[in-house]
Fold:
Amino acid sequence: MKYHFIGIKGSGMSSLAQIMFDLGFDVQGSDSVEHFFTQIALDERGIKLLPYDEENINEEMIVVIGASIKEDNVELKKAKELNIKKYSYYELLGELTNKYNTIAVCGCHGKTSTTSLLAHVFNNIIGSNYLIGDGTGLASDNNSYFLIEACEYRRHFLYYYPKTTIVTNIDLDHIDYFKDLDDVKDAYINFLNQTEKQIIVCGDDKNIRDIKDKINKPIYLYGIGEDNDFRASNITSSTKGFNFDVFFKDKLLGNFNINSYGKHSILNALSVIAASYLEGLDINQVRKYLMTYEGAKRRFSQTIINDTVIIDDYAHHPNEIKAVIEAARQKYPDKDIISVFLPHTFSRIKALHKEIAKELNKTFKSYILDIYPSREQQEDFPGVTRGLILDLLKNGEELDKEDLSKLKEHSNSVIIFMSPNDMATIIDSFKLLFKKDL
Structure:
């Protein structure tokens, strides 16, 4: 049976298509012809990519539908006409989670980096299948573990029934769906209570603490605070990363080094150490592979041209912006930090523009591109423009993606490009522009 993925270049869809291919299924998919970084792994596997066309759909296939696909998509309409078997992305992923010892990583921020680190450690030590929200997926019939990134958007993670769940944090996001923070908390409560064995949560996060007593499964807290079960202590930082001791209650598990930056990277590592310890992995092997981790795609991804550092990062929420700026300042303390921000969705900017501007003001200078609407329409958000952010910046300017010449003055700086959108085209244009002046 052939699986056809409608919207296969979506970050989760690409990962899931790779997994189904690795498990021996015949896989193809369709999407826009525009290049997207998630298609690289699809191309490497030889998975056929097609432009949207109703002729791609026939009665001999199962269709998997991406979250961004609308009802008027020609392939979805054809699939409904033929009445063939259909899965949403999260329905198919949910079926797979029931077949393995699944560890789900959720949280409003940091779940991609944490899932990626978890996959690196588990796969190198005992082998594991994994689905990461940066377009990375891998599977083998020989693996018993399945590590997944579980997104709370539209409560999609309620389709998953993991054995273990890690929660990095809880925050207000996806404002086009969730009514308020309490609505987000309610979704997490429901998801955690359908986890089968155990919950591993960041005890330094107030919103997680608020719901802890509503969870009916064993809970382990991790963090830097003294009242956590898994605790990082004696932390030292440098331009190389962090060194710290890890305790489980009163037991010293060992001393660890990570080649990552920002306080959030310590928390991510702690969650992986906790999961590894609770699953019985050799802690010395965990220590070894934490040090060899090179990062997730589009999470603090660096290119250096002479003395200028270019960073590509997925950050779009104020807490994510804060984290990537903090990381850049730790690694490059002697350079100016320049932020280039592509705002994502009108609803998010309407609700969070003040908090976004507050974080961007921590950089030497900020450049703001036009808002990317995603699934929204400008007419539904009158008055919501990038000007809401610009008006609050101490040193900010508009930037047109067709003219990046303003950025040329920032040699010997760290320039951070931030957006959940693929920034590759913009960054490549800047690199070409920059190299012409060398």
Observations:
- The longest strand covers residues 230-238.
- The chain has three domains: 2-88, 98-291, 301-436.
